[in-house]
Design a protein that fits this description.
Length: 413
């Protein structure tokens, strides 16, 4: 039994149409009209395949195939369809669409699993809107409660909680939808690698053994606005010049040869009043620090914050920092990694055990259930860009391995 790769291709192409930036990649933000349209597409496909589909209390889309013993713990197959701005068509989407395809195939082949299987599209995985990556999976695994959802705000100050209610949901019922250790048997996620390892090795499938963690910060620098023409250089308190020095320091710290696994990125920056002839009054920028060791993340973050403080002090610029999100590095289930390796060998598919530098909902799910991830290669190692691409022959290998693993986990009559 194999997945229908033509259907997977059609679903990926269909979802790519639900974007706020047509012709410039996938931009599908949580609770947006594009998000609603994409979810409606998935609900239609699910229901026409005889599956049940619903939004839960906070906007995760839950597609379910009941098992012969429906009260048994659930096998979850998940990922996300929200995107970064001008992102690609595969990041997250591949895992949701492949999970849906697997359930459609099981129904078509009249195979009823013993354990129920649930495909979950986790809401706000990217954190693009509310600045908290993995919101949906953190909430379902108990890392974020309803009150915490009232503190996550978008750039207009609207909270995640308000946005969920406006979307027609009832976040007060989050606890009814929660995942617990005794209600989830295991979790599997198929995802594009978003790096260049598999392509460079010429191997079609990656099996993830651990997922990096990250700390996200919001830095604010307060200088003094003044006239760009009349203010001597020696009398300036230029917040953007200060930010520029900080950003090159951040890169220097992460590039330190002793920090072999650490990466750091400044991806967002805004400057006020953002005018050609005004010395910038204030700047806000983000920092994303990652590593597979929590100690190394904290060590790098500490050196970065101390460095920024010293630069700001030397320039008489006021400096504020805020930790906006944190996820710790997570190991995948060793037994499921071993099982995936055997399944891959049995199918004659070469595989490579590897780390994920990207964050994934699987990392949060690993707190409550044995969890594993399957990677497929990213062309030129690119992701989070419209250039993101993966060959469908690799996707077919990955989705068939996911099918075999889901059946192994859920059992069947
Ligand atoms: O940022 C990440 O690693 C993921 O794409 N959310
Ligand atoms: Mn992503
Ligand atoms: Mn992703």
């Amino acid at each position: 039994m194999n997945v229908n790769i033509v259907r997977i291709h059609a679903h990926i192409d269909a979802l790519a149409n639900f974007t706020a930036t047509p012709g410039a990649g996938s931009t599908r933000l949580s609770f947006s009209s594009e998000y609603r349209a994409a979810c409606d597409y998935l609900i239609n496909v699910a229901e026409s395949s005889g599956l049940s589909a619903r939004f839960d209390a906070i906007g995760n889309l839950r597609i379910r195939l009941d098992g012969a013993q429906s009260n048994l713990p659930v096998v979850v197959v998940g990922s996300h369809i929200d995107t970064v701005i001008h992102g690609g068509n595969f990041d997250g989407i591949l895992g949701v669409v492949s999970g849906l395809e697997i359930l459609s195939t099981l129904v078509e082949e009249n195979i009823q699993p013993i354990h129920p299987i649930e495909v979950v599209n986790f809401v706000e995985e990217e954190g693009t809107t509310f600045r908290c990556p993995l919101t949906g999976s953190k909430a379902l695994t108990g890392q974020l409660d309803e009150d915490a959802l009232k503190t996550l705000k978008d750039d207009d100050g609207r909270t995640f909680h308000e946005a969920a209610i406006a979307f027609g949901l009832d976040p007060s019922r989050l606890d009814e939808d929660r995942f617990y250790k005794d209600t989830i048997k295991s979790m599997l996620e198929l995802h594009i690698e978003q790096g260049a390892v598999l392509e460079s090795l010429g191997i079609p499938v990656g099996i993830v053994n651990d997922i990096a963690g990250s700390e996200n910060y919001r830095i604010r620098l307060y200088g003094r606005a003044n006239h760009a023409g009349t203010t001597p250089m020696s009398l300036r308190f230029d917040s953007l010049a200060c930010a520029a020095e900080c950003i090159t320091l951040i890169e220097r710290i992460a590039r330190d040869p002793k920090r072999t696994n650490t990466v750091a990125t400044v991806g967002r920056i805004s400057c006020l009043p953002n005018a050609v002839n005004v010395i910038p009054a204030s700047v806000e920028f983000s920092i994303d620090v990652r590593d597979t060791s929590e100690d190394r993340i904290e060590d790098a973050s500490k050196e970065i914050l101390h460095g920024i403080e010293a630069i700001a002090h030397q320039r008489n610029i006021r400096f504020e920092w805020e930790l906006t999100a944190k996820s710790t590095p997570k190991p995948m289930s060793p037994s499921m990694v071993a099982e995936l390796t055997v399944l891959s060998e049995t199918a004659g598919i070469a595989s490579h055990i590897m780390t994920s530098g990207a964050l994934h909902d699987a990392a949060m799910m690993s707190d409550i259930a044995p969890t594993a991830m399957i990677f497929v290669p990213s062309k030129d190692g690119r992701s989070h860009t419209p250039k993101e691409s993966t060959r469908y022959e690799d996707i077919e290998h990955g989705a068939n391995l996911l099918l075999a693993a889901v059946l192994q986990q859920a059992g069947s009559n």
